Amino acid sequence: MRHALLNSFDALQYADRAVTFHAEQLHRLTHPDRAIESVDLGHIADATRRLARAVTVRDSHAQVLGDVLNSLVRVPDDATSQAFAAPQALAVTPAPPPAAPTEPARSR
Questions:
Q1: What is the 3-state secondary structure (H, E, C) of the chain?
Q2: What's the pTM value of the predicted model, to 2 decimals?
């Protein structure tokens, strides 16, 4: 479990570095002192797409890692004994018989 958590944390850090890198790249491409030409539009669109994808990946890693860490809360002893108690017998009712056809079957 600890290994999985550490790997998830490493993936989160890598995704966070990717967000920073793509944000800086987009900032370089759209700097106010820089003239934007028609050739740069494709690069700006690509940098924007990559930044959006990096943010999505980072947010998903953060959500999963947060959910896993929140699930590791200790449960009181009385709650665990109730959770592992033998289940009650379930009453099973038989299914109703299939309905009979209303019209007689045709013969050939």
A1: CHHHHHHHHHHHHHHHHHHHHHHHHHHHHCCCCCCCCHHHHHHHHHHHHHHHHHHHHHHHHHHHHHHHHHCCCCCCHHHHHHHCCCCCCCCCCCCCCCCCCCCCCCCC
A2: 0.61
| pLDDT one digit per residue (tens) for the chain, 108 residues | 788 888 888 999 999 999 999 999 999 999 888 888 888 889 999 999 999 999 999 999 899 888 888 888 877 777 666 666 655 555 555 666 666 666 666 666
Closest of 15, 83, 45, 17 to residue 7, by C-alpha: 15
Rounded to whole angstroms, the Cα distance separating 10 from 92 reads 50
Say if CB 30 and CB 36 are below 8 A apart: yes
